[in-house]
Amino acid sequence: MLHRLILLLIVVLISTGCGDDPSESEVEVSGRYRSGFETSELILCESGEEWWVADSDGLAADYDSIVEEPANGLYVSVVGVVSEIGEWGHMGCYSRELRITSVREARAWLDEDCTR
């Protein structure tokens, strides 16, 4: 009986994707990106939401060479995987995490960027 239960459990795990999280999805977003001490955030143009950025495409490494005024940050258009709602980033201050997979655009921030 125990062997059947273990076999059933294995079949269920395999058929459900072994832990794939269906709440995570790939998105394309744009906004104001800021990086610094205990900060890696994207403020979305579309909603004003603030997401923690887990940079997997090297954006943080290029930040200092692109940004003109660090407090202003960068305008970015990126593709990435967004997490489910939770507590993300420094001290859990962000409602979502974005793992960047592709940077479409990154340049110095202009005041009119999210009003176009």
CATH fold-type name: OB fold (Dihydrolipoamide Acetyltransferase, E2P)
Q: Whole-Å distance between the termini?
A: 65 Å
| Largest sheet properties | 5 strands, mixed, barrel
What is the CATH architecture descriptor? Beta Barrel
Name of the CATH homologous superfamily: NlpE, C-terminal domain
Topology:
Blueprint: H1 2-15, E1 25-36, E2 39-44, E3 50-54, H2 59-66, E4 74-82, E5 97-108
Parallel strand pairs: 3-5
Antiparallel strand pairs: 1-2, 1-4, 2-3, 4-5
Structure description:
It is a single chain. This protein has a five-stranded mixed β-barrel. The longest helix is centred in the first third of the chain and has 14 residues, at 2-15. It is of the alpha+beta class and 116 residues long. The chain has one domain: OB fold (Dihydrolipoamide Acetyltransferase, E2P) (Beta Barrel), CATH 2.40.50.540. The N and C termini lie far apart (65 Å). 19% of the residues lie in helices and 38% in strands. The protein has helices at residues 2-15, 59-66; strands spanning 25-36, 39-44, 50-54, 74-82, 97-108.
State the main characteristics:
single chain; 116 residues; alpha+beta; OB fold (Dihydrolipoamide Acetyltransferase, E2P); 5-stranded mixed β-barrel
In short:
This protein has 116 residues and is α+β, with helices and mostly antiparallel strands. The chain is 19% helix and 38% strand.
